[in-house]
Structures are given as C-alpha cells and as structure tokens.
Amino acid sequence: MPLAGTASVTLEEQEWTFGGRDTVFDGLGHCLYLPLDSAGVLTALSDLEIAVAAAPATTRCKAVLVTPDDADIELRGGGNASRQVNSLMLPAFPADRLHVIEVWTPGGNWSSYPPHKHEHDRDGEAELEETYYYRLRNPDQGWALQRVYSPERAFDLTQTVGDGDLLLIPWGYHTTVAAHGQDLYYLNVLAGPAPQRTLQAFQDPDLKASQDAWPTTGLDDRLPLIPRYPS
C-alpha cells in the first residue's frame, strides 16, 4: 500500500501500477493484495513510501488491486467523535485473514469512540489482533493519544503517539484522540484466527450510550478530509 508515491508490481504475467498521492493527506489509498506463496517484484516509479501488511494464511486467493474507485468510504460518528474511514479490505474481500482500513481524524476529534474491543470469537465480537500506524499532517508539531485498556487483564495504557509510530493492539478496549489542530491519519491492519471474516466489535458498555446523541449532533463539517476525487 503506497503511503506516498507511485509503485509498479509484477507477478508472473500480471503488472499493476498504482498509488500517486504525495502524502496520506492528499488522496485515498490504493492497496494491492498478493496471494499466499507468491513473489511480486516491486518497482518504485517515484519517491516511494510503502506499507506492507502480512498475516499467516492457509487459503490462496487471487491477486486484487483496490483503487479509490473500489473503496468503501464512510463518515462515522458525530460531533467531535467524527472521522473518515476508507475500507480497502473488508470482510467480503477475497482474502484469508487480513483486513486493511485507513482512517482520517480531524484535529481535536476522538476516533473509534466509544472505545471497542475485538478479542473473543463470540456472537457480536470477533477475535482480531490489530496494528495502528500513525501519520500527522504537521509531523514536527503534532501528536495524538491512544488509550488501550482491559479491566479483565488489569491493563491500562495511555500512549502519546507521533508521526510514524506503530502500536500493536492484541486485545482490550481502544480509542484515539487527535491533538487540537493536528489532523491524524492511521492505517489499521487486522487479522484473526476465526475462519469467518468479520469485524464485529464489542463496545465498552459504560460508554456505549454516548453515541445516542449523534443523530442530532451531526458530523464534523470538516469531513470528508479526503475527497474521493480531489479537484
């Protein structure tokens, strides 16, 4: 997945050219899924910053290029808990375990709120490990906060994150907040052992009701931060 720049990948007799944005704040992402036991050759066609996501797989699926035309774009939340979500590999995507999603959160807003978790394979919740990779529009000045907590495990982490940081979330409720005036991007990669592909999440029951006001609050009027087709 090019974070910045343009790439070309060849695999057997197939070739894809994709990417093109200057930064993650200048366009929606492209994502190329490569099958199990395949070896693609990557060529940088410009200055290139690329993210590579992988998880153990047992099922071989075909190569697929996801472009902004294919992506599922949502504006989620309400008020200062609003963000933009670009889902590149949702449960319907023909992959074994991986899910890939990118999120933009306007400065001062909460993201993935109310906090949720996905650590048990049960009705209403999936067992998924997740990574967050963070970028900031003003990297020399910006920061965000990530909280991960688990009453069951007596665990509570509140972590300051900056541009280029990566955080692993194997379990626990989690939520993020962007500092005032500092737009935040993060790339989510999720994978789990369950045979069914699902992103079901269980919200913190103590905070779940906070979203009841969203229909009257409305979305942050700064959204979308990234239009599907920039002018």
List the helices and strands and how they pair.
Elements: E1 2-4, E2 6-11, E3 14-19, E4 31-33, E5 41-44, E6 49-50, E7 64-66, E8 72-76, E9 83-89, E10 99-105, E11 110-117, E12 119-122, E13 125-127, E14 129-136, E15 144-150, E16 155-161, E17 166-169, E18 173-178, E19 184-191, E20 202-203, H1 214-217
Features:
231 residues; mainly beta; 5-stranded antiparallel sheet; globular; 1 helix; 6-stranded antiparallel sheet; single chain
Q: Explain this structure to me?
A:
- There is one protein chain.
- The protein has 231 residues and is mostly beta strands.
- The protein contains 1 helix and 20 strands.
- It has one helix at residues 214-217, and strands at 2-4, 6-11, 14-19, 31-33, 41-44, 49-50, 64-66, 72-76, 83-89, 99-105, 110-117, 119-122, 125-127, 129-136, 144-150, 155-161, 166-169, 173-178, 184-191, 202-203.
- A 6-stranded antiparallel sheet has the order 8-9-10-19-14-17, with no helix packed on it. Strands 16-15-18-11-20 form a 5-stranded antiparallel sheet, with no helix packed on it.
- The longest helix is centred in the last third of the chain and has 4 residues, at 214-217.
- The radius of gyration is 18 Å and the shape is globular.
